[in-house]
Write a structure and sequence with these properties.
Blueprint (H helix, E strand, L loop, with lengths): L1 E9 L2 E9 L3 E5 L6 H9 L6 E6 L2 E5 L4 E2 L7 E4 L11 H11 L4 H14 L15 H13 L5 E5 L7 H18 L2 E6 L2 H7 L2 E4 L3
Parallel strand pairs: 3-9, 3-10, 7-8, 8-9
Antiparallel strand pairs: 1-2, 1-4, 4-5, 5-6
Helix pairs in contact: 2-3, 2-4
Length: 209
């Protein structure tokens, strides 16, 4: 469960958010510049509320009036960024396994699970390549695996299919949906493509200015 009711102010930009997400896949659709990415960055802790309150699974993680703020790395939220944000000094498989290792899973066990998942997403052939050598589509698939692996409390996906070629898109989308359903957590997918959201999500929020 994600509950966000508050305002984010960054410089001259201010956006008020009001969103409640249960164990469902919610699509957020709208024009560029209306705050869709800021919404995700606020939930993951990369933007802070100037007022209001944010809770994840009933735990308050950001509430300025109560002087509460949980650091991003402690929120256990899987996120795919628009630019994928893989660690450049790591291989694809180590990027995918990173969240498990951070939670105390032994490296060999983490890499084994990561290997199984990246195979499902069609990038097993680049598992040992360093992140900067991957294509945009390969990077995006690895980022998706990293967001879904293990047991995140919530999953946030920012344009998760933008770099995937048309021939592969349906298969990747189905894998994402299948994993999210099995996880049974709150998930938010941001996209400018309403058709993709219709296929992937259980509910759609249309953001306007």
């Amino acid at each position: 469960m994600i509950s966000l009711h508050g305002t984010v102010a960054v410089g001259e930009f201010a956006r008020q958010f009001s969103l409640d997400v249960g164990n469902e896949i919610v699509g957020v659709f709208g024009a560029n510049g209306i705050g869709k990415t800021s919404l995700l960055r606020t939930i993951t802790g990369l933007c802070t509320l100037s007022e209001g309150e944010l809770s994840v699974n009933g735990v308050i993680v950001d509430a300025p009036a109560k002087h509460l703020f949980v650091q991003p790395e402690l929120r256990n939220i899987g996120m795919v960024f628009q630019d994928h944000s893989l660690f450049p000094f790591m291989t694809a498989i180590d990027n995918a396994a990173f969240p498990l290792i951070m939670r105390g899973v032994k490296r060999n066990a983490a890499r084994k699970l990561a290997s199984e998942m990246i195979e499902q997403f069609g990038v097993a052939n680049v598992a040992q390549q360093l992140a900067p050598t991957l294509s945009g589509g390969q990077s995006q698939r690895v980022a998706i695996v990293r967001a879904l692996i293990g047991s995140p409390k919530a999953v946030l996906l920012d344009e998760p299919l933008s770099a995937i070629d048309e021939e592969s898109r349906e298969g990747v989308r189905n894998h994402i949906r299948g994993h999210l359903i099995r996880l049974g957590v709150s998930a938010i997918v941001v996209s400018h493509d309403r058709t993709e959201l219709d296929h992937l999500c259980t509910r759609i929020e249309n953001y306007t200015r």
